[in-house]
Amino acid sequence: MPRPEEEVIDQGLAFDLGTLFNRRKMLGVLGLGAATAGLAACGGGSSSGSATASSSAASSSAATAASGEIPDETAGPYPGDGSNGANVLTQSGVVRSDIRSSFGTSSTTAEGVPLTIELTVLDMANDDAPFEGVAVYVWHCNRDGEYSLYSEDILNENYLRGVQVADADGKVTFTSIYPACYSGRWPHIHFEVYPDVDSITDSTNTIATSQIAMPQATNDVVYATTGYENSVSNLSQVSLDSDNVFGDDSGVTQLPTVSGDVDGGYTVALTVRVDTTTTPTGGGTAPGADGAPSGAPSGAAPSGGGPGGAPPSGAPGTPPPGSADGTSAGPSS
Q1: What is the pTM of this model?
Q2: pLDDT tens digits, 175-221
Q3: How far is CA 226 from CA 15, 163, 223, 232, in A?
Q4: CA distances (Å), origin 249, targets 21, 23, 27, 29, 259
Q5: For residues 110 and 326, what is the distance between their CA atoms, to the nearest angstrom?
């Protein structure tokens, strides 16, 4: 839910206000953001096929209209990369394509509409060549709006988190489920890009941190299915324009192309352009980021994200942010 009294979170623009921000504002002046939103809104009450077509058209238009480096964004309060409590990236088994099930001591599988996530990473410092060999860490909430490792009833799960290494085309592919919409945030998927797989255990090694914005038309179709009931009301209270991450430009460079349907599952594909000559400014956590209430305890789950809308309590026993052993005090945000 929008919080006008708090600062808008969009850390990725701070380093490049003179170029990228001005360019985005110009896109808004030209009406491209509104056109994209209008296309996405079409088919909201249509069949899954027409909704997919509308979603794909909107995403394709956005991809065509915008270029430049993928915006650096907050990693939010539930990264699982060691910057705020648990670090799943040190665990054997995290490098995997299918992230629907937990690994290690649990094999619990997250339920939901099937989703394939395809990211193509390009190296802007090398004429947009495919960024072969970079490691991409992806994570997102489950069908109930909860994050593994953080939400109380799934503290011991690590599903919907995983790493893939980009192939010769710069591409990584994950098999997952469609994320929920929880209170205060537009539906999204987080990702971090690391120089190589050997560097993933330390979140300070990231060369990009960003988010995928899930398209409106596809959200409408998915959230009409069993298990996503809470997402319907949560989605009605937020928009791409009001979201505290995507709101600066309606997510124009973060909207993926979409194919598939609700029965067979969807595929979302996004081109991620990374410029290693700039200093990454994303990651970390900030008050109000990702829908977490300002002043929320470290590890607190999304407000209203749990079944029935009841906010799960915080994750006991997780080290506070900025702490390797749990002895340091207080969140860094």
Answers
A1: 0.72
A2: 999 999 999 999 999 999 999 999 999 999 999 999 999 999 999 99
A3: 42, 29, 8, 11
A4: 9, 10, 8, 11, 23
A5: 29
